[in-house]
Protein 1
Amino acid sequence: MSTMTLDAAERTESARSELTGKKVSVSQAEVRKTVGQPFSDTAKLRMRDVNVFYGETQAIHNVSLDIGRNEVVAMIGPSGCGKSTFLRCLNRMNDTIEGCRVEGELSLDGEPIYGAKVDVVPLRARVGMVFQKPNPFPKTIYENVVYGPKIHGIASRRADLDEIVENSLRRAGLWNEVKDRLDKPGTGLSGGQQQRLCIARAIAVSPEVILMDEPCSALDPIATARIEELIDELRENYTIAIVTHSMQQAARVSQRTAYFHLGHLVEVNDTETVFTNPEHELTEAYITGRFG
Ligand SMILES: Nc1ncnc2c1ncn2[C@@H]1O[C@H](COP(=O)(O)OP(=O)(O)OP(=O)(O)O)[C@@H](O)[C@H]1O
């Protein structure tokens, strides 16, 4: 650890001595400041002082973070630290959870995500999502991909839909494997293929941002490697935020990494710095396996 931050200096001696042991326990008071570089000169998504509550319980505390254009930001941290909750704020998926309340400023290209006039349907087309478990619709491969473009009125003519299907499946790295069976059920594909189909489905509506919530946790190492390659290719055209439990995956796919702890954003910086020279002791404790 190279620098001692003001935040670190404020922390108690007892927390320091706990860090020398094998396991670490920390109180909420010790994680109140974010270190590193939460902000980006090329912000696509800008979040300031975000607080999220489930009923009376606060799950996210004053998180401020930018996600830049054409960058992959990985969100890591121990189970229950709020990664998925924060991710779901970015396309208002939390709206679907009863009792969930989001406060703070969140914007996409400078436009408020939570504005009174915002229609969440087009918002979710602009900010697409890929979930932990591949969830193709019980329809053909072709129908899975054209579903979004049809309901969003992006295309209706067969030739246009065919083009969207081919382009989306190519971008998702699946075209060659499925081009001869587009009329077969999406659910008949392997897990890794199904996840790439879900990525194709997200791409088909021309999103600007793709949110991924542990997209490889149900996949084997080969399918995982394929998705990770794909994430790197997709960065050329999209902004990507990915929640992952795998620090190796965060290191492989992201340019910046954000470390969450007990609902606080403790540290965000370029990925190499976070993994080789973290500023915050909590980050170091997590990446060295002392808790999590
Ligand atoms: N629908 C919900 N209702 C009430 N509390 C919730 C709900 N979803 C999450 N929480 C709580 O919010 C906190 C953050 O959970 P969240 O799922 O965002 O964390 P996470 O870091 O993504 O966890 P994991 O890595 O285990 O998926 C936890 O304390 C969790 O119990």
Protein 2
Amino acid sequence: MTTPGTPTENLHVTTFEPVITPRELKTALPLTARAERTVLAARDAIRAILHGHDDRLLLILGPCSIHDEHAALDYAHRLAHLRERTRDRLELVMRVYVEKPRTTVGWRGFLTDPHMNGAYDLSTGLHRTRALMGRINELGLPVATELLDPFVPQYLFDLLAWGCLGARTVESQTHRVMASAVSAPMGFKNGTGGSVKLAVDAITAAKHPHAFFTITEDARACIVHTSGNPDGHVILRGGTPGPNFDAHSVADTEALLRAAGHHPAILVDCSHANSRSDHTRQAHVWRDVLQQRARGTTSLKGLMLESHLHPGKQPLTPAGQPLQYGVSVTDACLGWTDTEALVWDAYETLQ
Ligand SMILES: O=C[C@H](O)[C@H](O)COP(=O)(O)O
Ligand SMILES: C=C(OP(=O)(O)O)C(=O)O
């Protein structure tokens, strides 16, 4: 649909394109009874871990970004199997990140650009993402993702066990008020500059009631009033000054959370600035945090790992050229063999 030109508006808009409504998408790809059980049980388990009623560890593992459903399901089958074998001590959830926040520009994720060619076929991205998240939940494996576009939750978030605001949006009021409406527990990353206070402020903001513009199930513009999200927690991911997974940083974070009146619940992201963007260093971060937890730091509730079927990353190839199977196209990831070994390390540490 091209835009009518007027002298004062839409000067930089090329097209408006109609999109399916949330209700139509959910009718085409409904939440099945099995998937609903996965979502509800995982949300309860994660809340219990965060609030100290369950002393298992929350592990959020998976690719930096989804770009290929087959590889994602291959990974999901393996993780679902591992989840079953470790569930007495660990709560395993899969990272299904489909919208990527970029520092400047770059591929913006499977939902936004599913053909990876700059066509921005968001309608197909929505369908394929909902289908994929549904199938992963059907395996009994809960889904975690980052909230980026304010309209996307209406289409997908009945399938979500855990959500987060990333380091680039944690200070954004738009995203904080959106988080206040999310039914799942929400993690808040420290800012890219390293400020943990931004994450603590985001927890405070998201815990409060808010009102904001969004769309209904039938895609009518509306104002939604929220009651606030009571399950916010900090994710330490390091920042410009360096990593922040060490015992001092964890103690400082705990103090900030308590001072703001929040339950001290902290996850550590082993990737990003905590690994200095070297995927192989994630193992060191993981083991260090497990040792802190074993020494009695109970505010450490879980870990996040960027992990795929095969280690490393690959550049996006020119159109038509095949990509390597199961290798990240965004941040470098650990491969499956190392991932499995780290999960068993966590299992043994929690003995
Ligand atoms: O997690 C992924 C990346 O770190 C994030 O999307 C930023 O990527 P960029 O700095 O390569 O744009
Ligand atoms: C973008 C991500 O992380 P951060 O917001 O910490 O950079 C991510 O986890 O994919």
Protein 3
Amino acid sequence: MDVVRTHHLTKRYGRRTVVDDLNLRIPAGSVYGFLGPNGSGKSTTMKMLLALVRPTEGDVEIFGRQMTRDTRRQLLGGIGSLIEAPPGYGHLTGAENMMIVQRSLRLERAQVERAVATVRMTEQMDKRVREYSLGMKQRLGIAMALAREPHLLVLDEPTNGLDPAGIEEIRGLLRYLADQGITVMISSHLLEEIDKVADHLGILSAGRVIFQGTRDQLFAASAPDLLIDTSQPERAGEVLRDKISVQLDSTGHAEGGTLRLPGVDTPTTERIVEDLVCAGAAVHGVRRDEQSLEHVFMKLTSGGQL
Ligand SMILES: Nc1ncnc2c1ncn2[C@@H]1O[C@H](COP(=O)(O)OP(=O)(O)OP(=O)(O)O)[C@@H](O)[C@H]1O
């Protein structure tokens, strides 16, 4: 079952379309990494899921029910969120901030205490929030989102500005929450920050989803560069130049060189090798380049296609 589904979700500001025809699918129990460069429309999408921004077109379905004026209150009751800057009044202590959350949502004290313990902030509750580090502020914000014991947690760039240790701490927390059965949607403009924790990915570029699926599917869909080792790289380059974009890899051998060919599928690989051999350019190696997910992401969001 999907916890979140959107249907043709679109937001326009004036003539500008900032979210364009989005069909998101967030499976129950997943950690869904919502990725895209700055300005690609992640926050706007999340705000539409939380009914903070009204869609221009399309609709949002949460827990299998359409978000309408009548269902909104109930559906939002099952969602915890952290959007933009960490919340909380700086001049109040962590405990006082949590008390405000407890009262405004009419929660039990035990619920608030559990949320604070989950983010490992119990010892910091007597400090004023303005004395917290950024990581502590983020954790307090997550505790606020968790206090209502949501089924879905929506976190907009919770790792923004954190040092590597702080990022790892948030990752560990998300893994723990996912193990408890909470579905987590987390946005970031840096793949490496959420790659290790997200099992599903949605990649946004200029308001459109350019990939949605599992991490493995992302790799499978994006063919790694083909590397061809040949003892006559110039000759091989000439043979292929008209047919395909070729570059001579910097890792050329003394006795020859390596050609790098992007976006080549298996049948084309077979044809290329045949062409080279027929043209007298000996081939002594054909391989695929190992690529990192970061590389795939950069390729996709800089206009590359799947
Ligand atoms: N209220 C608004 N009025 C007009 N334009 C807006 C408004 N809110 C957002 N935008 C524009 O919509 C685009 C998408 O913004 P959004 O904040 O959703 O992107 P984002 O992917 O979350 O980026 P970032 O990581 O920088 O927050 C941006 O170009 C932004 O300037």
Protein 4
Amino acid sequence: MSERRTTSSGPPALLPLKVRDLVLRLGGAAVLDGLSMDLQGAGCTVIMGPNGAGKSLLLKLLHGLIAPTSGHIRWGGQPPGAVTARQAMVFQKPVLLRRSVAANIDFVLKARGKDRACGAGLLDHVGLAHKTDQPARLLSGGEAQRLALARALATDPELMFLDEPTASLDPASVLAIERIVAQARDDGMRIVFVTHDVWQARRIADEVVFLHRGRVEEHARATDFFPEPRSAVARDYLNGRIVL
Ligand SMILES: Nc1ncnc2c1ncn2[C@@H]1O[C@H](COP(=O)(O)OP(=O)(O)OP(=O)(O)O)[C@@H](O)[C@H]1O
């Protein structure tokens, strides 16, 4: 797998990511409990694991939105806060401005000092060209999520986090989102995608990080993980047995 944007004149490479002994205590409990992992190369990493395993909190820590209680996160040697602007995050529930579809994109392009003429192309890319002037609040769930994706892409991130972006969407909308993400990945963007959907994970993952009780239980290439997970909890999870 190759690295992206490692030129001698540009900023230091984002990857490898090194996470060591990460602990996050909330409400008196260690919700992340000594988590360590590395990410490198290109492609799509899917983070899976049962409810409450710590997936969403891990994304927020990696993106620099919250700070750990202890432990160490370094993106190419830099702390998360130093690289947040080089990354984008898409949440399960899209957070959109109460303005038109076009204005939602325009706002991001303007804030980033980017060419605002790109907006039309981005809306076309996510299949929303015909909704340009519509208020964003009138979009369906699938359309709103595609607009959230377009906004993330408008920042031209090197890496995109997606936290269960298709959890409440119909099958056609799920596939539409997956196609856009796969295209971004094929264009060289690093993807970190949280999902509960085993079939979705099988479609999109190059590698899987399986979390359980705030720790990494297994980290493997998708081609190894799905046919033969090493850990008993991952095996149970893939087989639909309850894992607590
Ligand atoms: N602000 C908070 N205060 C106390 N506990 C919290 C807080 N936020 C999250 N937690 C707890 O931390 C644990 C991990 O939460 P997280 O949202 O990361 O889980 P998850 O793996 O994304 O779960 P799910 O699959 O259900 O979305 C959960 O037990 C949750 O209840």
